[in-house]
Automatic annotation (TrEMBL):
<keyword id="KW-0413">Isomerase</keyword>
<protein>
    <recommendedName>
        <fullName>chorismate mutase</fullName>
        <ecNumber>5.4.99.5</ecNumber>
    </recommendedName>
</protein>
<dbReference type="Pfam" id="PF01817">
    <property type="entry name" value="CM_2"/>
</dbReference>
<feature type="domain" description="Chorismate mutase">
    <location>
        <begin position="1"/>
        <end position="89"/>
    </location>
</feature>
<dbReference type="InterPro" id="IPR002701">
    <property type="entry name" value="CM_II_prokaryot"/>
</dbReference>
<dbReference type="GO" id="GO:0004106">
    <property type="term" value="F:chorismate mutase activity"/>
</dbReference>
<dbReference type="InterPro" id="IPR036263">
    <property type="entry name" value="Chorismate_II_sf"/>
</dbReference>
<dbReference type="InterPro" id="IPR036979">
    <property type="entry name" value="CM_dom_sf"/>
</dbReference>
<dbReference type="InterPro" id="IPR051331">
    <property type="entry name" value="Chorismate_mutase-related"/>
</dbReference>
C-alpha cells in the first residue's frame, strides 16, 4: 500500500467515526426535541447556543483548528436540530 492509500484509509476511518458521532448527537437532540415539544419549550435556546459557540472556540484552539470553521460546522448542525425540533412540535 502506498503512503497516499494508507492515509486515505485512515481518513475513511476518521470520517466513519465523525458520521457515527453525528448520528449519536442527533439521537440525543431528538430526545431534547421531544421534551421541548411535550413541555411547549422553544426550539431555540440562544443563551445555550452562545455558550456552545464560546466553547467551540476554546476547543478549536486546543486542537489547532480555526474557531470560525468549527463554529460554522456546528451552526449548520444546530440549525438542522432546530428544524427537527420545530417539526417535532417545539414552540417557535
Ligand atoms: O440544548 C438545547 O436546548 C437543544 O435544543 C440542543 C441544541 C444543540 O443542537 O446543541 C439545539 C438548539 C438550541 O438552540 C440549543 C442547542
Amino acid at each position: 500500500m502506498t503512503e497516499l492509500e494508507a492515509l486515505r484509509q485512515e481518513i475513511d476511518g476518521i470520517d466513519a467515526r465523525i458520521v457515527a458521532l453525528l448520528g449519536e448527537r442527533f439521537a440525543c437532540t431528538d430526545k431534547v426535541g421531544h421534551l421541548k415539544s411535550t413541555h411547549q419549550l422553544p426550539a431555540v435556546d440562544a443563551a445555550r447556543e452562545a455558550r456552545q459557540m464560546a466553547r467551540f472556540e476554546t476547543l478549536a484552539n486546543e486542537h489547532a483548528l480555526k474557531p470560525e470553521l468549527v463554529q460554522r460546522l456546528f451552526r449548520l448542525i444546530v440549525d438542522e436540530v432546530v428544524d427537527k425540533h420545530k417539526k417535532l412540535g417545539a414552540a417557535d
